[in-house]
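Anyone? Bumping this.
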Amino acid sequence: MNELLHSSLSGAQQPILQVERMSRFYGERVGCQAVSFKLWPGEILGVVGESGSGKSTLLRCLAALDQPTQGDILFSEQGEWLNIPALSEPKRRALMRRAWGIVHQNPRDGLRMGVSAGGNIGERLMDAGERNYAQIRRVASEWLARVEIDPDRIDDLPRHFSGGMQQRLQIARVLVSEPRLVFMDEPTGGLDVSVQAKLLDLLRALVRDMGIAAVIVTHDLAVARLLTDRLMVMKDGFVIEQGLTDQVLDDPQHAYTQLLTSAVLV
Amino acid sequence: MEMIKVCGVSKNFTLHNQGAADLRVLDSVNLTASAGECLVLQGESGAGKSTLLRLLYGNYKCTSGEILIRHDQQWIDIALAEARSILEIRRFTLSYVSQFLRVIPRVSTIDIVSGPLLGRGVSREVAARRAGDMLLRLNIPQRLWGLAPATFSGGEQQRVNIARSFIAHTPIMLLDEPTASLDAGNRDVVIELIAEARRSGVCLVGIFHDAAVRDLVATTRFDIKTAKQPEAA
Amino acid sequence: MTQVQTITGADPHYNYGYLDEQTKRMVRRALLKAVAIPGYQVPFGSREMPLARGWGTGGIQITAALIGPSDCLKVIDQGADDTTNAVSIRQFFARVTGGRTTEKVDEATIIQTRHRIPEKPLREDQILVYQVPQPEPLRKLEPSEVETRNMHAWEEYGLMQVRLYEDIARFGHVATTYAYPVMVNERYIASPTPIPKFDNPKMDMMPALQLFGAGREKRVYAIPPYTRVRSLDFEDHPFTVQTWDKPCELCGSRLSYLDEVIVDDQGSRLFVCSDTDYCEEQRQANASEGAGA
């Protein structure tokens, strides 16, 4: 019995994101420099490095929260390439609401704390024009179940949730509009170790199921190993090594990467 | 049918933080392996057997040479392939069975073992049933299936690992000391699984520290040191 | 130089309509812009008026900028012509214009109102001027002016819909009964001012021009005649208006908005029309019918 699904290697897929020699300077100071990579649909790219490596700057530029000083960030939308930094503000915001998602390290930055869980999840739907109350509740309940929050808590306020639950709620809120690209900044930072593992597994399953491409910034190599397909290692604003995650972690080529990986029990 | 072709593969390790020490572990290795074959890598400890296996899997980066894997009726060079290609190959064609179980904590044993089937689109019920059969075969009692394997003994964890690795048909399997922590009875089960896999056309490449096991599973052997072409068992 | 005609009855110490001509031009320019962009809040140079902020200075400035010798002004406060404030404002304009004022909707060309729309449908030759306390419908949800301006600019109104959702989740229905937000011309969300939601449907496709003035917040906005005005709701929780069990005690109308009046210390209550002119008209109609019968 052959259970092999048809491999999609032969169908050459287009990347969803192309970054070409992107740099962000703050006057003399370097945020990140000459970063280039391509991201395909369904790929999870990790960006690791210590504090000051430029990884958060990179993420902010990619997520259109900051404007790069040089270089292009091209996003594939309906067969066309959009240069994100050059987009008009309304177009960019529309894109951010629909095609992208950002999961913040601190869930309070990504949630409306005074709005119920259902309202938080439903907001993107309502933004997109959903006007049927019952439908909004149905979708919100489904998503609560999917992120393993009891659907009975749909009317509760996030301030009554634990940190892990708030983070899962944030993830539901972001993924409900089925974005094609998701940016995450230390998604498990600040959570108990025991909670982190389950959350990582959930994230991985969701991202796989939905075929989302993701860029995840983390300083934690264990998170990178569990969650990402590819890894970029940053130091002093440069990408010094990139490749398959387990390859970069198990067979690091660059001196700094070797230092980084030897310092942890991964 | 040939499934693996290794041509002139060398592997150096440069340890930058230890005075740029340069270790040459493999030197111009040539190797082929075919469907239905169980190729056993031989050599002393440190000779590079594990390294070669990891190179085949794409876990290590070769310094020079070609590593061709037959995937979906094409030859793909692992040494040059993009990350997503390698992941694709690992998902459908190439699997690696290590001596350690590496899983997300808190996932139950039955879920771990059903995982590869679910990834291939098999229904949850069927996957769970087959996972259960496999676990019973490896003497993991049902009362343990709902638990995460973190608290199991080394041997039990390894058997869960084996169950997961053998449950879905994968054309190429790389085995790195799979019987290391198993007792005689369970070792026999694994030997049987290997034989069945071979009969169904899987190409196996493995490292076995136990000479007796080697003799039972190998159809061809490859000596790392001499880097000789496979000889008949 | 044109001779400024002295209008009989106007107080000669003030310019016609109280505001100087340049100010009137500024206000009219702002109003033209507002009419050109229905529902959009246009900033304007709100002047210090001879009454404190919060007493209708915005409405007064609009009326002052528009009123002319051929106009006839009606002023109502919560539907009544005879409250202190309505009377004060009406007398103010009578004094600074020498012009005609009335309590009858039919006779008025400009109607300045606080928190109600007259029951009688208005005509194309009439202007309704609303007094606005808070022009920003999103203010309670988003305290930042920068943010609310962005939300209007980019039509990001999800938050308002979320607020309605929250009401339904918590109370089973939308709890807002006045100042119920509306979508004007399918583009801008606007505050209809604290009129009861009962009055919202009257705004839709109204033949008269609707102008809104917020003196303290320094904004004007407008709804041109025959513009679509839709109260926000959900498909399965549609917008509904208030109803009463009883008709107006005085005129018997079942169609108008009723005020609740406590009549004695035992708490007995009456329901009477909020719109005094309308109630009066109904009573006269009843009387003439009775006389005719």
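Late reply, but here is one note on the structure posted above: The CA atoms of residues 66 and 80 of chain B lie 8 Å apart.
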